[in-house]
Design a protein that fits this description.
With about 160 residues, this protein is α+β, with helices and mostly antiparallel strands. The chain contains three helices and seven strands. Strand 2 and strand 3 form a beta hairpin. It is elongated and about 70 Å long.
Length: about 160
């Protein structure tokens, strides 16, 4: 039974959580419970060429399951860019300490590597390089994006 004055506790350090808008923060270790849509939007803003739902980025994680600090139901355990996250269907995604920053930076790094400013066809004579670069550039961009999506998406279930 929960009482009015009971504060939810942090899953990482057992400190009290504070509500700020839709988020729950731990003032001691900076862990947080944020809505899943908010994390999805943060990730998608960093890489405008890769708009996926959050569940298309979640990879299975071997970590033990934990209980939601708000509703005390068991959360599913996942990882995004090797950062462990716990997902509560009712309240969102729990991220320990500065995991959200790590996720955003990893996603930004992948976007930058896909869209690096290196000229394509630089080692081919200038006229031919420009022509091949213009013809192959869209195909290469889609290929890089497809490879990154395959690498950061959960494995497809076999029927």
């Amino acid at each position: 039974m929960t009482f009015r004055d009971d504060r939810p506790l942090c899953l990482y350090c057992n400190g009290g959580l504070e509500k700020r808008g839709e988020r729950w923060f731990c003032g001691e270790c900076y862990s947080k419970l944020i809505p899943a849509q908010e994390l999805r939007d943060l990730i998608n803003e960093v890489s405008p060429d890769d708009w996926r739902e959050l569940d298309q980025r979640l990879m299975p994680s071997p970590r033990a399951r934990r209980m939601c600090p708000l509703c005390k139901t068991e959360m599913t355990t996942w990882s995004i860019y090797d950062v462990p996250v716990d997902h509560c269907d009712a309240h969102g995604v729990w991220i320990d300490r500065t995991g959200d920053t790590t996720i955003i930076l990893a996603n930004e790094q992948m976007f930058k590597s896909r869209n690096s400013g290196t000229p394509r066809g630089a080692f081919v004579p200038l006229g031919i390089g420009i022509i091949f670069g213009a013809l192959l550039s869209p195909w290469l961009d889609r290929r890089r994006l497809r490879k990154d999506i395959e690498r950061t998406s959960p494995p497809k279930k076999r029927r």
